[in-house]
Amino acid sequence: MTTTASLATSGTREIQFREAVNECLRQEMALDDSVIIMGEEIAGGAGREDQGVVDAWGGPFRTTVGLIQEFGRDRVLDTPLSEAAFIGAAIGASSTGLRAVAELMFIDFIGVCMDQLVNNAAKMRYMFGGQVKVPFTMMTRIGAGFGAAAQHSESYYSIFSHFPGLKGVVPSDAYTAKGLLAAAIRDDDPVVFFEHKGLYGEKGPVPEESYVLPIGKARTVRAGTDITLVGISKMTWVCTAAAEELAKSGIDAEVIDLLSVSPIDYDHVIDSVKRTHRLVVVDEDTPICSLAGDICSRVAEEAFDYLDAPPSRVTAPHTPVPYSRVLENNYVPNEARVISTVEKLFNR
Amino acid sequence: MTTTASLATSGTREIQFREAVNECLRQEMALDDSVIIMGEEIAGGAGREDQGVVDAWGGPFRTTVGLIQEFGRDRVLDTPLSEAAFIGAAIGASSTGLRAVAELMFIDFIGVCMDQLVNNAAKMRYMFGGQVKVPFTMMTRIGAGFGAAAQHSESYYSIFSHFPGLKGVVPSDAYTAKGLLAAAIRDDDPVVFFEHKGLYGEKGPVPEESYVLPIGKARTVRAGTDITLVGISKMTWVCTAAAEELAKSGIDAEVIDLLSVSPIDYDHVIDSVKRTHRLVVVDEDTPICSLAGDICSRVAEEAFDYLDAPPSRVTAPHTPVPYSRVLENNYVPNEARVISTVEKLFNR
Amino acid sequence: MEMDRDTLLKLYKTMITIRNFEERGIPETGQRRMSASVHSSAGQEAVATGVCSQLTDEDYMGSTHRGHGHCIAKGVEPRVMMAELFGRATGSNKGKGGSMHIADMSKGMLGTNGVVGASIPLAVGAALTSKVKKLGRVAVAFFGDGGANQGILHESMNLASIWKLPVVFVCENNGYAMSTPAEYALSTAQVSDRAAGYDMPGLHIDGMDVFAVCDAAGEAVARARAGDGPSLLEFETYRYYGHTVFDDPLTYRSKEEEDHWRARDPIQHFRNTVLPLGDITAEELDQMDQEAVDMMEEAVKFADESPLPEEIELYDDVYVSYPAAELKRGTNMGI
Amino acid sequence: MEMDRDTLLKLYKTMITIRNFEERGIPETGQRRMSASVHSSAGQEAVATGVCSQLTDEDYMGSTHRGHGHCIAKGVEPRVMMAELFGRATGSNKGKGGSMHIADMSKGMLGTNGVVGASIPLAVGAALTSKVKKLGRVAVAFFGDGGANQGILHESMNLASIWKLPVVFVCENNGYAMSTPAEYALSTAQVSDRAAGYDMPGLHIDGMDVFAVCDAAGEAVARARAGDGPSLLEFETYRYYGHTVFDDPLTYRSKEEEDHWRARDPIQHFRNTVLPLGDITAEELDQMDQEAVDMMEEAVKFADESPLPEEIELYDDVYVSYPAAELKRGTNMGI
Ligand SMILES: Cc1ncc(C[n+]2csc(CCOP(=O)(O)OP(=O)(O)O)c2C)c(N)n1
Ligand SMILES: Cc1ncc(C[n+]2csc(CCOP(=O)(O)OP(=O)(O)O)c2C)c(N)n1
Ligand SMILES: [Mg+2]
Ligand SMILES: [Mg+2]
């Protein structure tokens, strides 16, 4: 079991995913005056003139803590509950010289502002014949498992893979969070940055200086020879845990951390499958027209002759997210499901 | 070359797709008092009190012509340009005893009202523990090829396959339009009805009496033995035209008309592929996380051992829809692309 | 404001039921580690109570993430709500929805809703049902000062106005959307100012005074029922706790401000107003207080003793009809 | 209203350029069977002209599906617009956008837009850029009476107001959204009434009188530039043709109504107002009229003689950077 060079070198200090996001925002804002950030609660009450610049919450998950103190009201803007307008405004600002970062509190709410992303951010450059860049970043949250029910637990990244003109990244740890967020902010195209609620508290080694990871590149987090497991965001660690278990029964799984949902690094996956001849994609989103299905279809198309078993997926079921823990526990893919799926592919 | 029994029996009068939609609406509204319809322009100016009940346009594509004269203002409602509110209201009405049909003029605008579909229509029944039915129908339009550019030409049905709780149908001719719209309106779940702009003028045999086609069932429009072509909406006819051409070079293609995007009739496709051993899905939508990819992935997973070639797709490219005809002509899948794709699968 | 004894006692009972539900149910839910997304309406009881007191069981109501009070005032049983919060099969929603989705269609309760503003058009649609079917019912749409800035409110008010639908738009202005002050996020001093742009009455009312709430709501409901169209009512109120009970509101508001509002407690205000009239005694009310405590004790017990949903219910009620196998096709679910 | 000769002539020139573009360019586009989605602003010239006359090239503007006039008034060259309508490589957007997406970022023209209301927040965002970077620029957001009912307008006005952004919201109320009368769809007699709910000035102005437009816009722009925040201006105007030129407006409006508005033609109104003052002669204006005709002749010729885009440009400018192969991966494109 080895990890690739793209993992942070050991010896660096360890910080939480949430801190990595925060550190990145601080550094990017310090480096580039044109970076601004806006969203509900990102300063949290600090917008009120009469209280001075006081950072009440620093965002619902504390990822923006301290920013308003450091960069002031002009560049750190609490917004009203008006996602369509402020995300649209961030897109407008990004097409006129700023690099605006806007936060959509949960991806579940995308339906109130999707038009701005899909018809403006994603299409302006193309429709305008290349006249404009839209270096806009949308930060948002995904992930079930918190008893937050059907409207606060979704992982709708597949639609951002689907729409041309958008990019998307799904960091899986503190290191990739910092590097991919920096990449998103510096990128001249609109990028959606997906934070998994279940990763905020996870610690990992993160360089203090700022750095950028490439958008559109997957990484191999565990080398293996017998099957390729592809994880998206937190599911990467479900894959590695499953791989450890599988190793005990002699199945050596390679685990790929997808990291980007657009562009998708199909080549990385296909190269792996050409060696392992088997594929399971693990995706927390629902199954139909999903990222998992998409990757399976590409592999089936481009590595057809290398496959020894059907390209398979482990996903949520085609249902909304239920509230009661006893139901939700079965909703999110877990190691047991990955293992049984892999075993089926070896016992056909 | 045979066609299945699910095609309308010959001998019936022929009417246009647009007329079939209109006839269905009339019949369903006459049959059931609880059916109402609302949308922008559906009566067209008839909303104004001072002009009496005058039907100016009968909808932007004349599918609702005459309805307000027949059923009156209470059941045929012109709406303001407020999709989120009126589609939300139609959902609210449908959950309290009406069967509301609402029209979204073009699917491209889904981003202004998607939250109501995804978080209310699709999830209420589940979140509420089965307390409510939402017999809501959304009629909308898809399809490129009219010089209408990036914001009026999309075919975003894949996201309606993706979201649990929604159903969707994609009629391909006048007969299926009438039968599937009736099914959508009578269905107790929310259903999206996709009309392809390029089909409105097409004539076909349609029974005068009202009838219902099953949601979730594909149909075989051309039997064949060598390869399965799956078409969605207008693409079905691109497939049949390609099949005729292919027949000349000795390739006997089976053509399946998908008809539903949720539930997807995977079994129908898989049964066919188990006989033909090859698959090409033709989809006017963009390729990533698409319906085409989804069907390929399912076939790869479930008919793996039957496949003699990679399950493949012909789709639009991963770009917005360009304006200039010379560009748009290449955007939409055509027979030549289907044929060359099929040929590649036989020459690997 | 003329009210008979029974009406008064009913108002009181509703308010203390809500208060006790919030004070007991939320911490209990927290202890059971069910969810962090549970929002207390303690402090806002007069609005839910006053508004719903003007409605019948047949009337409709759409609610928010902070909707326990609305539910109780509309007649949903606290014990099934408690069971819902605890994720039990006996919950109002069979444990599938939780605090943010409690619904009781038999009471016209169209659901609390986790997306701010999203329930507003549902209420408008219910009003449309009433109009088309000539049912004579009214629909109430609750939303907060934060929700007042969602575009869907504007669209819904316009729609309800041009169609003269029987809707009452009710803004519970509790001064904050999470930690963001209404005075920062709202461009207008009063949300009710916006009514003029939609040709409907707009009133700004003390939401800590249940009698004032009843009066204003009574008029708006009567107007709606008479076919004269919608109204917009804004009630000034306050939530005693944080956005959820897990955040510390003192990071964005002052102790003085909290004290100021607590001194205007709607339940206390009721007592202060009614007891001097002599018709109702403190003992009676104290007795009712105890009953509310007992009711919650029983509700917690009921919920705790209720079964959890069967695992397989994960797949139930996604649709009225759908091929069952398609819900888990190829996802390699364990169940 | 004090204006010098040059200013007056410039207003006239802009108006007749727009009129001629619409009267010539749209039928020519139709003949070439490029698109049915082309909307004429003939009749509305005074609004685009008057508003944009108060802006510099640096100022921003977001437009609508009916945006040819806005583009011309903001300085976009008619010949590149014509080429765009004809789908030519020399078009403002290289033939990729067409009538509904004409943009010229070098003129602060943030695009006509095919989604009603969608360009409003773009203008707000541009105003934010101006504020954050202290550029002193103003942004105008155009929308119609139909667009006035989109939630995004409400959200955008609130946002611009609380952030005191230099935005002017301009409603071109031409009485109809497609065939739907504004008086049916709008719950308020005047869109400008809604300004009060967002703490900004709201004015209702004759949009057929370019001088009245200049006055109102001048004040709103000055206010915005001074940092005093947004305004809402509603101009009453009329489109002479159908929603597109392919529908017959007499199915939903009367000949008398059309005549009434045509009698108030903004170009004629200009002549009637200015010529009696004696400073400018009819011959001068006639001469300019002829120049505008010639300009369109030349524009049509330019467009017709321009090359079509290369087929391969289908893949250009989707992103600034993206692996090229991914744009067509596995789609089996012929090119
Ligand atoms: C569309 C949407 N955006 C953001 C959120 C996250 N959120 C939940 S409640 C809330 C604040 C709501 O404030 P208000 O409407 O005043 O209601 P209150 O909590 O004060 O009762 C926010 C921002 C959401 N649920 N929905
Ligand atoms: C969100 C959205 N809904 C519907 C349409 C279809 N549509 C295009 S223009 C139009 C009418 C617009 O009316 P108005 O805003 O008054 O502008 P006008 O055409 O009168 O200039 C409609 C309904 C659209 N383009 N976008
Ligand atoms: Mg509030
Ligand atoms: Mg108009």
Report the mean per-residue pLDDT of chain A as an integer.
94
Low-confidence stretches of chain A are: 1-6
How much of the polypeptide of chain A forms β-strand, as a percent range? Answer: 15-25%
* Total number of strands of chain C: 7
Q: Looking at CATH, which topology of the largest domain in chain A would you report?
A: Rossmann fold
Strand order of the biggest β-sheet of chain C? 1-2-3-7-6
Low-confidence stretches of chain C: none
Helix content of chain A: 25-40%
Q: Superfamily at the CATH H level of the largest domain in chain A?
A: Thiamin diphosphate (ThDP)-binding fold, Pyr/PP domains
Kindly describe this structure:
The complex is a heterotetramer, with two copies of chain A (348 residues) and two copies of chain C (335 residues). With 348 residues, chain A is an alpha/beta fold. Chain A is built from twelve helices and 14 strands. Chain A folds into two domains: 4-205, Thiamin diphosphate (ThDP)-binding fold, Pyr/PP domains (Rossmann fold), CATH 3.40.50.970; 219-346, 3-Layer(aba) Sandwich (Rossmann fold), CATH 3.40.50.920. Chain A is globular. Chain C has 335 residues and is α/β, with parallel strands linked by helices. Chain C has eleven helices and seven strands. Chain C has a single domain (5-310), classed as 3-Layer(aba) Sandwich (Rossmann fold). The complex binds thiamine diphosphate (2 copies) and magnesium ion (MG) (2 copies). One magnesium ion (MG) binds next to strand 4 of chain C.
List the helices and strands and how they pair.
The complex is a heterotetramer, with 2 copies of chain A (348 residues) and 2 copies of chain C (335 residues).
Chain A: E1 14-16, H1 17-31, E2 35-39, H2 67-71, E3 76-78, H3 83-94, E4 99-104, H4 114-121, H5 124-127, E5 137-142, H6 158-162, E6 167-169, H7 174-186, E7 191-196, E8 203-205, E9 219-222, E10 227-231, H8 235-248, E11 253-257, E12 260-262, H9 266-276, E13 279-282, H10 291-302, E14 312-314, H11 325-331, H12 335-346
Parallel strand pairs in A: 2-3, 2-4, 4-5, 5-7, 6-7, 10-11, 10-13, 13-14
Antiparallel strand pairs in A: 1-8, 6-12, 9-11
Helix pairs in contact in A: 1-7, 3-4, 8-12, 9-10
Chain C: H1 5-31, H2 45-52, E1 60-62, H3 68-73, H4 78-85, H5 120-132, E2 139-144, H6 151-162, E3 167-173, E4 176-177, E5 180-181, H7 182-185, E6 202-206, H8 210-225, E7 231-236, H9 255-262, H10 266-274, H11 282-305
Parallel strand pairs in C: 1-2, 2-3, 3-7, 6-7
Antiparallel strand pairs in C: 4-5
Helix pairs in contact in C: 1-2, 1-10, 1-11, 2-8, 4-11
One thiamine diphosphate sits between chains C (65-66, 114-116, 143-147, 174, 176-178, 243) and A (40, 81, 83, 105, 109, 112).
